[in-house]
Amino acid sequence: MNPLLPRSVPPAGMHIPLKDILGSLRECLLARDGAKSFQDAVQRAFGVRHAFLYSSGKAALSVALQALGSLAPERDEVLIPAFTSYSVPSAVVNAGFKVSLYDLDAKTLAPDLASLERAVTGKTLCAVACHLFGIPCDMEAFRAVCRAHGVPVLDDAAQAMGASRKGGLAGTMGDIGLFSLGRGKAITCVSGGVLATDDDRLAQAISAVAVPEATRMDDLRACAVALAMNVLLRPRLYWIPQSLPFMGLGKSQFDPNFPVLGLGSFQAALGRRMLAGLDESNSRRRDQARAMLSRLGDMQDELAVPVPGDCSPVYPRLPLLAGDGHADRLGGHGVSRSYPDSLDRLEPLRGHLASASDCPGARRLAAELVTVPTHSYLTGEDMDAIASGLAGGQGRRPA
Ligand SMILES: Cc1ncc(COP(=O)(O)O)c(C=O)c1O
What we know:
Blueprint: H1 18-29, H2 34-46, E1 50-54, H3 57-71, E2 77-81, H4 87-94, E3 98-102, H5 113-119, E4 124-130, H6 139-148, E5 153-156, E6 164-165, E7 168-169, E8 176-180, E9 193-197, H7 200-208, H8 216-232, H9 239-242, H10 265-276, H11 278-295, H12 300-303, E10 311-312, E11 317-321, H13 325-329, E12 336-337, H14 360-368, E13 369-373, H15 380-391
Parallel strand pairs: 2-3, 2-4, 4-5, 5-8
Antiparallel strand pairs: 1-9, 6-7, 6-10, 8-9, 11-13, 12-13
Helix pairs in contact: 1-8, 1-10, 2-10, 3-4, 3-7
Bound molecules: pyridoxal-5'-phosphate (PLP).
C-alpha cells in the first residue's frame, strides 16, 4: 500500500468478505429464496416465532409502528429517547405519528424512568427503548413502567444485535424487536432491518402492512455498494468516499421521506452469511473496546460509560464521554461525534412533537459523547494516539 496516501480510519463499519459478496450474488442470480432462509436463521438465532425483513432499520420501525397503529387507532404518539439516531424520529413521522420524548441518564445512557413515566399519556401508541452503542437497557424496569399504562414496548436493538442483559437477548425483550443491518452496525448487508416478535396478533398486523418488494436493480445496487465497502473502508482509501459529498458519510439527518421496501434477495443472502459470523465479530469488537479502555488508565472512570454486571454489551462503536471537541482533532483515527443534538432541540422535529419536553441528560450526551471505532481497521497505534489525544484535554464543552 502506498504510504503517501492519507490514512483515515472510518468511524464505523465492517469488512464484508469478498467471498460472501460473490456467494450472495450467485445465490441471488440463481433465484434461491434468500429471504426465507435468512428469516429462518433470524428466528433460530434469537428464538423468536416470527421475523420480517425490510430495506432498512427505519423502514422496519415504520412498519412496526403502522402495525401497532392498526391495532390501536385512537393512539398517535410514540415515545422515544431524546438522544438516539435521527432515524428513530424519522421512522415515527414516516409512519404518520407524533413524537414524544423521554430523557436518558447522562452517564449510563439508561432511560430516565421518572421522565418516561411523566411522558406517557392516554395517546401513547408505544414506547421505544434503544440499546445505545450496544449497551442493553434494563428492560424489566422499562417494561414495568409501560405495562402499568398498557403501553406496548418496542425493543430497538438496531445497535445491539447479540447483546444481552439478565440473560435476555436485546431485540427480544419487548412486544416487537428491531435490528438494523446498516453499515455501522454489529453486522451489515449494506442496509436492512429486521422485526422480530413472538406475538401472533402483532405478527399478523405486521404482515398486513403492504410493502413493495425490492427490485433486481436494488439487488445490483446493493452488490455494488458491498464491493465498494470491501475496498474503500481501508484506512488508506477511506479518503475517497470521504471526499464525495453525495455519500453523506457520518451525517445524521432527520428525514421522514425514505423508501419502505422488503429486503432484496442479494442482501438477504448476505445477511444470512453475516449472521453466521455475528458472535465472532461481536467478540472481536469487545476485545477492541477492552484494549482501548485499558489504554485510558485513570481516565477510564471519567470517560467510559459504566456497564452493569448483568450486561453483555456488543460495541458496534465504543462510546466515551470525552467532549465533542475531540472528534475534530482525533477524526483521522476514527473518533467521531455522535448525534449532533438532542431531539428536544432538533429544529426540523419541532412541528412533529406531541408536546415540548426538557431533556437535560440527552443534551449533555449530545455535547459530551464521542465514539471510537471497534472494527478491525483500528490498530494499536490508533488506540495509543487516541488515548494520548484524550489525555491532552481540550475536548470537553463547558457544562
Ligand atoms: C437506535 C436506532 N434505531 C433505528 C435505526 C435505524 O436503522 P437504519 O440505519 O438501518 O435505518 C438506527 C440507525 O442508526 C438506530 O441507531
